[in-house]
Amino acid sequence: MKRVILLRGPRSGTVDAAPGWAAAQPWAADATRIVVHVGFSAPVEPGGADRPPAYDAVIELWSDAAPDIDALHADWAEATIRSSAQVIGKPAARPVPVGITPGLSQLSFIRAIDGLPLAEAERHWDEHIPLARAIHIGMNRYVQDRLSPPDPWFGMAHLHFPDEAALRDGLFRSPEDVAVINADVAEFVSDYATMLAIEHVVKG
Fold first, then answer.
1. pTM for the whole thing?
2. What is the per-residue pLDDT across 20-57, written as a single tens digit (0 to 9) for each?
3. Residues 37, 45: contact at Cβ < 8 Å?
4. Can you list the domains of the chain with their CATH numbers?
5. Which of 45, 69, 72 is closest to 56 using CA atoms?
């Protein structure tokens, strides 16, 4: 089973220590794969002021056993665990090895429109995949995590870019594509938060 762990406020050490912290946890031994995304401050708009990431660290954990939430709270001010049904929109060209992955991850957390049936939100998100692949020409991987329970976030989208230039120049094909994406997303998303992160494959 895949789980997504959302973390804020390390109680000791720094956020950069999150990959080593994850590797040292009791639940790491039984996991088949662990990926830690370390968030960093970045401007929301080009040339704008830096804003802190939505989460300090996001962990993708493949394990039959869930971490103890109380133990997480001992090390982090805020911790949330969600189960994930993963949908691969654009697979990696080759397996991602253990270590720091070159490039940048853009993680977007989305909230479904209130009252929209879950099946409808998932259908819209399925239909969004070919559009995302066509427009986000610089990304080399695209994964959707459908989170359960879907509160506050219905899902997490992971777009990975091989370098900063690919993100800057290849997030959209043209300025007009911004409106196209926004119009499509508005059919099933009421709110979202986006962050940039460095991906660390801790175990895999």
1. 0.95
2. 999 999 999 999 999 999 999 987 666 778 889 999 99
3. no
4. 2-203 (3.30.70.100)
5. 72
